Amino acid sequence: MIPVVKGTRDILPDEALRWQYVESALRRLLELYGYKEVRTPLIEREQLFAKGTGESTDIVQKEMYNFTDKSGERVTLRPEATPSMVRAFVEHNLGQVMLVPKLYSFGPMFRYERPQKGRYRQFHQLDVEVFGVSDPAIDAEILEMAWTLVCELVPSRAELVVNSVGCKSCRPMFSSALLESLGDRVSELCGDCQRRSKINPLRIFDCKVPRDQPIIDALPHSIDYLCKDCRVHFDAVLSQISDYDIPHRLSHRLVRGLDYYTRTTFEVLIEGMGAQNAVLGGGRYDGLVRHLGGPDCPGIGFAVGLERLVNTLAERVAISNPPAVFLVAIGDDARLVMLTLIRELRQAGFSTQMDYDARSLKTQMKRADRSGAPCVLILGSDELARNEITVREMRTGNQRSISKTALLEYLGEALPEWTGKSESNGLVQE
Ligand code: AMP
User: Fold this and answer.
1) pLDDT value of position 428
2) In the prediction, which pLDDT does 423 show?
3) Residue 357 belongs to a domain with what CATH number?
4) Is 280 in the pocket of ligand 1 (CB under 6 A)?
5) How many angstroms is it from 36 CA to the middle of ligand 1?
6) What's 114's domain CATH number?
7) Fewer Cβ close by (within 10 Å): the C or N end of the chain?
8) Which residues of 386-425 are buried (b: 16+ CB within 10 A; e: fewer)?
9) Does any domain span residue 178?
């Protein structure tokens, strides 16, 4: 047996149902806020991430799956979605085509990280981006949506954390203040931080090395260095999310690991998820579209880690999708009739299963029970002779004979009540 690649995993049928449940809940919300789906390739030119995600980031420095293809081109399995979304936005001129470009995308990302619970080398994100709006109203709407989306799936355990990292005019002052405050102590920090201090000192706040923490805790805070415009913007965002009644915590350490963020940054954390407790992260990136060769166009967005969302859901809800109908046939003649009937049932929209191996009635009934189908149709020689079929409601054990011609209509009326399926996603929450 050749096992899966380290850090990747199979999503098996029971878990896949939870994914479907989460994805359909997310799509429903995205619809409400006016987002449109985009699907970009999993491979992009390496340069897109080197430039877009940023040379100083851990992603570009250590984690990308880069290779040279047969034509000699350097390509990368995408480690995050934002640069791809920006590329697609610019390449297809979506700023002209769409009224408000509000875009989303689902799919796998690849990062060569050290695998652990909640951290994989192939993982999935929902990515959400809005282009062309600089007003704080969109920051607040995005925060409100991010919060609503996590709370809908993980009620009462989420925490929204917010910060502002300033813009290209005030951020250099903050970077200098950081370096000044660090002074000689920079040599006491870990190797990563020493490197960060040279390329992007803000990223020192991402450090998790315990020995570095007392030094980092004493550093200045970005919000004390915001220029007037950034301050006004951030105050408007905070005031709006307070009006929305969204509980939030300010954290000066939230600079996030990517180079392109400006102004608002945020994360949603989930209590009790251990070290990998961030389920969603994002921020504003007003210079990125231009940096990647597009127009001078602001942007803001976030990414949700779907594994982490599905894992938290798994602790609370069991979800199944049993067939609506299970067919049981006794004898060869009945079995032939069943094979036609199963097609008719499916054509009428009833999910249907049967036991293909034509075992005894007892075994077929056991399998019918295990399938979880609320309704079992039984066809033997008696029924054949009368051109009828026995319909059994599994929950109550009630049985009745129905003429074959009236069957579809009868099931159409009875099944919605027997299945308890929610119409929105076709899944049964147990
Ligand atoms: P990022 O793109 O790093 O801002 O991450 C956004 C979200 O994606 C995080 O909050 C996590 O939920 C998820 N995420 C990031 N990296 C991984 C990973 N290696 N494995 C699983 N989920 C991840």
Assistant:
1) 57
2) 44
3) 3.40.50.800
4) yes
5) 22
6) 3.30.930.10
7) N
8) eebbbbbbbeeeeeeebebeebbeebeebbeebbebeeeb
9) no
Per-residue model confidence as pLDDT tens digits over 261-309: 999 999 999 988 877 889 999 999 999 999 999 999 999 999 999 999 9
Residues of the chain with pLDDT under 50: 422-425
Question: What is the rounded end-to-end Cα distance, in angstroms, of the chain?
Answer: 35
Ligand 1 neighbourhood includes 18 CB (under 6 angstroms): no
Cα 305 to ligand 1 centre (Å): 5
Nearest CA to ligand 1 atom 17: 119
- Residue 429 has what pLDDT? 58
302 shares its domain with 422:
no
In the listed set 317, 343, 371, which residue is the last one of a domain according to the structure? Answer: 317
Is the Cβ–Cβ distance between 418 and 395 less than 8 Å?
A: yes
279 CB within 6 A, ligand 1:
yes
Same domain assignment for residues 271 and 345: no
Boundaries of domain holding 90: 13-170+226-317
Q: What is the pTM of this model?
A: 0.91
291 and 387 co-located in one domain: no
Answer whether residue 204 is part of any domain. no
Ligand 1 centroid – CA 312 distance (Å): 15
